[in-house]
């Protein structure tokens, strides 16, 4: 049996994050955990990194109670002062950005710069939330009744449960955490069971800030676990908003459980994103965009390009150039600075990759590049391009969370827009064109039906300033920037009579 990586001198930096061989997976002001022990494995070599003891349902129960107690303190703190705490969280993350980014790379398997990029996103959203802490508010509206004021008051919902996916083990929590806190909520986080060390390391950084400010640590609680803890959160009436990021399949189960209790939910589910390349596109932008968005993070982003639709006049040329670029992608250990492409997260994902390629072949596809598992330790597969499939082949309409790009050939704009929209998912979409009219048609009512609608850039790599999320089976939620904060608050329409009369709305007389 191999020893844990954390004990090897090469990985001693993990201790800078407060991690050890065995880690407690519950935080609610104090650390605990007496549930199932999970070992976290490195996807690049399948070696065990360290262990985490997850929460029991009893510990979940205790944590919810402590979080709700903590809310009584947090909700009374003025929003700009809450923003100051969020600012300190951002600063604490800045200090650990490299080492935390390295952990993300080691545990999730994404390349180092992307691991660091995730922490940067959390830092950026903290900065954004600090500004927001002095700006959130509702309008004062004209009342039709004399001597009356009509206004909107926004209040925190209370306890925000946050369930996150393996592929963004820091950033997704960060988006939710920074905005939810600023709005006056407390958080309870359950990360993915295959990235528990990242959940523990992030929570240690956040907890230190709270404790230094003499605030209850349960303001940012964490219960590591799997479907058991996730289900408990979905069914729990005390979880005032459940923010769920993950697959459409699990998201649907979660959504039904939350709806059953008329709870609030924010769903960020699967995508099946397309890049559409028109005859007038600048191919010098198209090729690196298609490669970044389909090969980046080894195809494990919700915004990964899975369908590349090429106008028939540029089809062969683009396939040739993209396939050539695929062969030059540097594959290696994700923490090696020169690597552009790392492993899949799990062995199961390798099986899904092989099964999807088989199905694609059966449905009429031709593998023009890749298609094989790589002969090296870890979960490495070749980035793959498949041509010749019908636009509506079942495999093309499926989000397989691996680096397989389906190339489709189209003739008209109408056809391409229709194919973009015909899948169940509605997350991200891009066109490449110089035609200004087409750009506005793409953004308009008969254009892309996705939450993210891009022009001359890839489908992945969103900024935090905009609202992030998608329509249809992607769940309809919006996180991060713009007015996404509204999802973390409840709106009260308040009418105040400051006159001595009682006029009724719509001129109704009741006397
Ligand atoms: N739209 C977005 O913003 C976004 C972002 C990242 C990932 N994703 C999607 O996430 C998926 C990949 O992530 P994954 O494989 O970790 O997803 P997943 O659905 O398997 O797991 C997501 C989370 O749900 C938890 N979970 C599992 N069963 C549950 C249950 N019955 N009740 C409650 N929680 C439960 C898991 O433990 C995990 O924390 C892809 O489909 C991807 O598109 C979407």
Automatic annotation (TrEMBL):
Signal peptide: none annotated. Its EC number is 1.2.1.3, 1.2.1.31, 1.2.1.8. SUPFAM superfamilies: ALDH-like. One of its GO terms (molecular function) is L-aminoadipate-semialdehyde dehydrogenase [NAD(P)+] activity. It is found in: Cytoplasm, Cytosol; Mitochondrion; Nucleus. Residues 36-492 form the Aldehyde dehydrogenase domain. Keywords: Acetylation, Cytoplasm, Mitochondrion, NAD, Nucleus, Oxidoreductase, Transit peptide. GO terms for cellular component: cytosol; mitochondrion; nucleus. Pfam families: Aldedh. The keyword Ribosomal protein does not apply. It comes from the Eukaryota. Pathway: Amine and polyamine biosynthesis; betaine biosynthesis via choline pathway; betaine from betaine aldehyde: step 1/1. Gene3D superfamilies: Aldehyde Dehydrogenase, Chain A, domain 1, Aldehyde Dehydrogenase, Chain A, domain 2. Belongs to the aldehyde dehydrogenase family. Multifunctional enzyme mediating important protective effects. Metabolizes betaine aldehyde to betaine, an important cellular osmolyte and methyl donor. Protects cells from oxidative stress by metabolizing a number of lipid peroxidation-derived aldehydes. Involved in lysine catabolism. Homotetramer. PANTHER family: ALPHA-AMINOADIPIC SEMIALDEHYDE DEHYDROGENASE (PTHR43521). This is Alpha-aminoadipic semialdehyde dehydrogenase.
């Amino acid at each position: 049996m191999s020893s844990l990586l954390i004990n090897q001198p090469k990985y001693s930096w993990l201790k800078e994050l407060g991690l050890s061989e065995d880690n407690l997976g519950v935080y609610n002001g104090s650390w605990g955990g007496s549930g199932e022990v999970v070992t976290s494995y490195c996807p690049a070599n399948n070696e065990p990194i360290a262990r985490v003891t997850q929460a029991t349902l009893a510990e979940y129960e205790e944590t919810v109670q402590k979080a709700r107690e903590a809310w009584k303190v947090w909700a009374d703190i003025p929003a700009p002062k809450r923003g100051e705490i969020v600012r300190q969280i951002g600063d604490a993350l800045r200090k650990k950005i490299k080492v935390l980014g390295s952990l993300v790379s080691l545990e999730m398997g994404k390349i180092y710069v992307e691991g660091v990029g995730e922490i940067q996103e959390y830092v950026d959203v903290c900065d954004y939330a600090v500004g927001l802490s002095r700006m959130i508010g509702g309008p004062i509206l004209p009342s039709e009744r004399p001597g009356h004021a009509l206004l909107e008051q926004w209040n925190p919902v209370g306890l925000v449960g946050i369930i996150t996916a393996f592929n963004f083990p820091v950033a997704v929590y960060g988006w939710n955490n920074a905005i939810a806190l600023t709005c006056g909520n407390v958080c309870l986080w359950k990360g993915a069971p295959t990235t528990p060390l990242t959940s523990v390391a992030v929570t240690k950084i956040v907890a230190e800030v709270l404790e230094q400010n003499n605030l209850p640590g349960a303001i940012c609680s964490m219960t590591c676990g799997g479907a058991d803890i996730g289900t408990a959160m979905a069914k729990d009436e005390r979880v005032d908003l459940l923010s769920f990021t993950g697959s459409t399949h699990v998201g649907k189960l979660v959504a039904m459980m939350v709806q059953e209790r008329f709870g609030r939910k924010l769903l960020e589910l699967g995508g099946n994103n397309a890049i559409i390349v028109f005859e007038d596109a600048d191919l010098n932008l198209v090729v690196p965009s298609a490669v970044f968005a389909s090969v980046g993070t080894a195809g494990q982003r919700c915004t990964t390009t899975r369908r590349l639709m090429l106008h028939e006049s540029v089809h062969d040329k683009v396939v040739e150039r993209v396939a050539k670029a695929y062969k030059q992608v540097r594959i290696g250990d994700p923490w090696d600075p020169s690597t552009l492409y790392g492993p899949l997260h799990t062995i199961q994902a390798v099986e899904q990759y092989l099964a999807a390629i088989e199905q694609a072949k059966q449905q009429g596809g031709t593998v023009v590049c890749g298609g094989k598992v790589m002969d090296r330790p870890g979960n490495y597969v070749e980035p793959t391009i498949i041509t010749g499939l019908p636009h509506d082949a079942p495999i093309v309409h499926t989000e397989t969370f691996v680096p397989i790009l389906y190339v489709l050939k189209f003739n008209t704009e109408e056809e391409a827009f229709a194919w973009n929209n015909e899948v169940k998912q509605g997350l991200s979409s891009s066109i490449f064109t110089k035609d200004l009219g087409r750009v506005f048609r793409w953004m308009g009512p008969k254009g892309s039906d996705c939450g993210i609608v891009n022009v001359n850039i890839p489908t992945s790599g969103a900024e935090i300033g905009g609202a992030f999320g998608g329509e249809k089976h992607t769940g309809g939620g919006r996180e991060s920037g713009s007015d996404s904060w509204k999802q973390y608050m409840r709106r009260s329409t308040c009418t105040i009579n400051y006159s001595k009369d009682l006029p009724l709305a719509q001129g109704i007389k009741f006397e």
